[in-house]
Design goal:
CATH superfamily of the largest domain: dinb family like domain
Largest sheet: 5 strands, mixed
CATH class of the largest domain: Mainly Alpha
Number of domains: 2
Number of strands: 5
Radius of gyration: 19 Å
Order of helices and strands: HHHHHHEEEEHEH
Strand content: 5-15%
Number of helices: 8
Distance between the termini: 25 Å
Structural class: alpha+beta
Amino acid sequence: MNGTRLRECLDSDAARLREVVAVADLAAPVPTCPEWTVADLAQHVGAVYLHKVECIRTGTNPDPWPPPGLADEEPRALLDRAWAALSAELAPRGADSPAFTWYVPDQSVGFWIRRMAHETVIHRVDAELAAGADRAAIPADLAVDGVDEFLSVFIAYGSKVWPQDFETVLTGDSADSGESGESGVSGVDGADGRAVRLVTEGGSWLVRPTKELVEVTAGGTGEAALTVTANPADLLLWVWQRADDSAVSLDGDVTLLPLLRQIFRAGSQ
């Protein structure tokens, strides 16, 4: 997706998020974000938006963060203020303008446009669930790009750059291994090199966990022990742990699912 299209999606989902938060009970729990309320969700997104403003404006990672007093702002007002600031910061800049990012291969505003588009669509779904509101449609092109971003940036890149976040899962030493009640299987013994293929209209990815890292190949044609198939929106929500296995079709060795879920959790912390 190009920056213009991603910005269109970001604008649309930010408007929907703010619309839902404006009428939601701020004390309502967010079922997809344990221990969060709608107020916490609004404060989180507001803080994320303002952090990206500083990354773009200064070209550095703001430290310390968050600034004093941010957590004391009224959540709806903070979200509105932060969105206005982010929108204004992005408006005069092209996607290729320089910006600090934590993703070394891409130090551009375009990275943050993409990242905020996907941050926002996931959290507006969180808000809709918390408010009991109808879920607005997720465009197929945004969903496919979101799956690709999650797998390539958070999982493949993350497992190389922050191996400590994945080590216990990949080696099988995780304290919470032995999950039960998930697709009728239990026990996570770590990665053994077997791959899982994720497939949707417009994209496919081969995900191969090893003891050291997680390899992701877009469009990969290698052998897979398990294939996970869904429409783009459902696959996006599934990889971000916002949908359960009823949203996808599974073909192959489902005993790989607990490991895959733990990898996805490790990458999205």
